[in-house]
Give the backbone structure.
Amino acid sequence: MGTEREANEKASGEGDASQLEAASIADVSVEVATVDHTLQKICRKYRKTRRKPKGLKRLQARLLSIPHLAVIITAVVFVVLIIMWSLLWVFLFRRESNSGVYFAGMFRVANVEFIPEYRQAESREFVSLAGKIQHVVSNVFKVSSVARLYKQAIISDLSNNDKGGVLVHFWMAFVVPQLRSKSVCEECVEAIFRDSVHISMMNRSSVGYLLGLPVDMDSILINAVERSDYSSSGAGSQCVGKLYANLPGLSVPLNVFSSWGDVSCHVKLTSAPGSLIRLTVTSFLIEPSDCVSDGLTAYDALLPMRGRILHRMCEPVSRSFSLVSTSNVMLLSFRMTNGNKSFRGHFEAIAEEMSQIETHVEPDIIGQIYSPFHPSLLPPQCFSTWKFETPSSALGVALQFQNYVLKPKEVNGCEHGWWKVNEIIFCGSYVGHHTVFRISDHSPEVEFRCSSRISAQPFQATYSSYNISQPCPENHFLCSTGLCVEKSRRCDGLDDCQDESDEVFCSRPTKNCGGNSPLHPLFVCNGESDCPNGIDETNCTQETTCSAIRYQCSSGSCILKKNAKCDGVLDCQDHSDEADCACGRPSSVKKTGSPPGRERIVGGDNSVEGEWPWQVSLHFSGQLYCGASVLSSDWLVSAAHCFSKERLSDPRYWSAHLGMLTQGSAKHVAEIQRIVVHEYYDEYTFDYDIALLQLKKPWPPSLSPLVQPVCLPPSSHAVTDSHRCVVTGWGYRSEDDKVLPSVLQKAEVSIVSQTDCKKSLGPVSSRMLCAGVASGERDACRGDSGGPLSCQAPGRGRWFLIGIVSWGSGCGRPNLPGVFTRVNKFTSWIYSHIS
Ligand code: ARG
C-alpha cells in the first residue's frame, strides 16, 4: 500500500509539476499580450503628448518592425520564464529539501520530589517544572554542533518510578536539509545530550549535572521516531489518552473501537511507583496487514521509542493473553482503519515477583516451574532462580519442557533466554515438541534471565528426580531430545523421539513379507508393492487408530494408506481424501525442455510454459530474491529465511510474479498483504524454515491453468522410489555464477535418507529433508530459496510440495545434497493459517 501510495504521490507530484508548467506557459502568453498591448498603448500616448524628434521616431519604427518585435518578445518571455522558474524552485523544491527529524527521549531528574500535580500537563506545577527542563534541553542543543538544525523540545510527561526523582519524557524536532540528514542521527543526538551531563569524579552515583539539573546518566534514552508518531502523540494531538491504575489488583477496562472512523491513538498507562503494569488483551479484531494499516504496539515507556517495544500485535487476537511492563508505565499505540475493528482488554498494577524459589524434589513426585509472570509473556528484563534438592546424591533433576529446549551456549548470544545451570551457560529456544533437560546433580541451582528485547513466549516445565546412572527406565532408549522411548520403537519408521533420533542410523528394514513378525511400517500401505504376495498393500483403507504415518480423513478417522490424498481413489468413507484436489496438475503444454547439453540451474534444463504453474518468483524491491509456491488463490508458501531481516519482513517491498517462465514475462504480479514467518524459525540452524505469504488480492481464475496450486502433502505422506522429484527456480547455475538465468530451470533429484544426510551435513533436523544426486551435478543454489521441491505421485499422478529450498553447503558439490524444509511436518501449521 505504501509503495502504491508513494507511486500515487509521485504521480500526482508529477501531475502538479506539469500543471504548473502548463500554468506558467499560459501566464506567459497573457504576459506577452499585455507587454505588446502596453507597448502599443504607451506608444500611442507618447505620440499624442509629444512630438518626437525624427531620429527617435525612426528608432521607434525600427523597434516596432516585425523582426525586432519578435526578438523583444522572445527576450521578455525568456526573462519571465527565468523569474517564474526561480520562484518555483524557492517555494517548492527548497522547501521540500528540508525535512523534519523527530526524536523521543527520557531521563530521570534526581533530587526533585514528584508531586501528583505533575500528572496533569495543564497544572501550574507541571508547566513550571516542564518549562525549566525544556529550557535546559533547548540550551544544550542550541550550543551544540547541530544548533542550526534544532527546532524545539517539548516535555510531554513527568512520571515517577521507584528510583525517586522525576522521569522526564520529551520530544525533539530538528529541521534538516536532506544533504545534512546524517548529522542528526539517533546516536549523535544522544551523544550530544550525554556529553553535556557532567559527572563529578568524586560522586560515585550515575547522577551528573546538565546545566545545573541533576540527571541520572543511566536513565538517558533517545530514539528516532516517525513523523506520524510525533504528530499523533506529540504536543497538541487530540488522540492521547491517559489512564491510571492506582490500586493494586483493581483492573481498569480498556476498550477501543474504530466504528466511528480511523483510529491512530496513543493510550498512556501509569501505575504507582514500584509496581508493574499487566495488560490483558481479551480480543483484538483487525485486518491482518503486518501492522501496515491495523496494529497495536505496546511500549515499555510513555513515548513510542523503538528501543522500548514490548510487543507488537499485527494479527487478530481471539485468545486472551497478557504482557507485563518492566516499570510502572506503558504506552499503547493503536492503529485501526475504519470499519468494525475493536480492542477489548484491561490493565492492572501488579507487584514485582519473587525471583528465588527453593524446591525439594521428592522421588516419584513431579512439580512445575513457570517462567516469570507466567502465563503472561516474559517481559524484557526478567530474572528467576530455582534451587532444587533431591533426597540422594544418586538422583538428579530432570526438567521436561513443552516447547522449549536448552542447548549449550555457542558463539552467538542467547536470544530466547539465558540459563546458568551450576555455573554452565545454556541458551534456550522455542521448538515444536517436548524436550527433557537432565541435571546430574542432586542440588543444582538454575538461573534464568530473559534475553530478548521484546516480550517473549512464556514457558513451563515439570521437574522430577531421575536416577543419574540410568536416566531412562529399563528397556527404554534415550533420545537426543532427552525423552525416553521404548526400545522396540527404535527404527520402526515413527518419529517417537520428536527429533527422529530413534529413526537414524537404522539398517534398512528387511521386508519380512511372509514372516510372523509384523511388517515394518515403512512398507505398509505406502503405495508401492514391496512384497511379492502384495500383503503390504492390502486392507489399506480399513479404519484404524491414528498416528503420524496414517492418513486422517476429515471425519477424524484414520486409514493405513499413507498417500490417500488426491490419488483418484475414494479411500475415506466421507470421501474427504478426494475433495479439494484442484492442485498439482501442470497445464499440458508442449513437451521437452532445453536441447540436451545445455547445462542450467545446477545441472538443470529450461522448463516449458505451464510446466510448474505453482512456481512463483518473489521480488524484493524489484529484484529476484526468492522463490515460492502457490497454495491457493491468495496464499503462497516460501522459506522463512527470505524474510528474516528487518526490511525483508515488510510486505510492502515484495511482489510475487505468477505464471512466469522467463523473468519479466509474468502473467500476473501480485502485491503481498502479510508475511507469516514460522514462530520457531531459527536463523542460525535454519530449523522451521517456512513462511506463508498472503496476497493482497486473489489471482484471477482466468490465469488457470498457467497459475495453479501445488498439492499439499498430508502429514502421513511418504515419498517412495517411484515418486519423481524436481527442484525448480531462477537461482544461480553454479556456486560462483554471476548471472541469473532468465528461463525457469528444473533439475531432477532424489530424496536422500536422513541418516546419510546427517552423515554428510551434520545438523539436519527432523523438519529438514535432503535431496540431490551423489555426483552433485544437480542441485538448487542461491536465488532458488523458498521455491518448490515438487514430487509427482507414481503413475503420472499429481505433484505434491515435498520440500522448500532452504540451505546447502555450497551448490552442486559431490555428496553434499541440498537441504529442504520437510513440508509434511507443517501441514497442520499451514492449514491453521490459510483456512
Ligand atoms: N539459501 C539459498 C538461497 O537463499 C538456497 C541454497 C540452496 N543450496 C543448495 N545447495 N541446495 O537461495
The radius of gyration is 35 Å. The longest strand covers residues 213-225. The pocket of arginine is lined by residues 731, 779-785, 805, 807-808, 811, 818 (CB under 6 Å).
